[in-house]
Here is the input.
Amino acid sequence: MDRPTGDQDIVEILRAVRVSDIVSGTITHVGRPHGSAVRLDGRLGLVSANIGPLDFSWRHRSDEARQVGQRVTAEVIAVDEEQGMIGLSLAATENPELWAFLKGLRPGEVLSGEVADVQRFGVFVALDDGPPHPFYPGVGFITIPELSWRHFDEVSEVVEAGQRVTCSFLYFDDVQGEARLSLRSLQPDPFQEFADAARERQEFCGTVTKLVPFGAFVRLVEGFEGLVPLDELVSMPVETPEQVVQVGDRVKVTIISLDRDARRLLLSRKRAASDPLSP
Here is the structure.
């Protein structure tokens, strides 16, 4: 087989490939941690192809299941012209019903289901219209930040196993074969509600919730906090926020700046009209 004569040939071959194409080839190398190299059939064999460790067979996770000379049929999940590389997934071709369902979802689409499992890293959701996942309790998954706009210490404060939920679809995680979901996107954002009424130099009373080397966080209302930078805690220079305030203190602060897009609130204690309130 003739090899391409230059980088332009590689680029032309890669531009003919589309994500979601189904291709076949032979494993030529098995290694850690980057996965298995594959020589694809036909003209595609002139460019590099790789199955990542998490994109290999879900039925056979062990290295023993990946052997040089093994024939595979996989789905194209990435085409990198700069690196001259095609990324492949065997999990996609082994679970066509699941992949078809996930590919058919659109960002912002509202989905309903039942909380199948609650973990410290997130929540699995069994979607009403979705197929079961071959390994996880549900085909939907909500990460911790997407559970609520409001602060919480335990996931169980927001949802529990068996609870019915309605979520917004964010994106298809083709590594885990999951629908990434958001519970909070369908809820009012308390920061934006606060921003509608707030203005710079407006004063509030809040509670110190956390001390960091560069300042202190103060909760003004339930759901979000603002930062008082170290140099805005008190008029005289201090090296640490502990020299001025402690967690749990009630303080009076004024708004320095408010960024809606970043959901960031900067506050000043020293510019407030009066001293902190007593705890």
Observations:
- The chain has four helices and 15 strands.
- The longest strand covers residues 22-31.
- The chain has three domains: 7-94, 97-186, 190-268.
- Residues 206 and 220 are 5 Å apart (CA to CA).
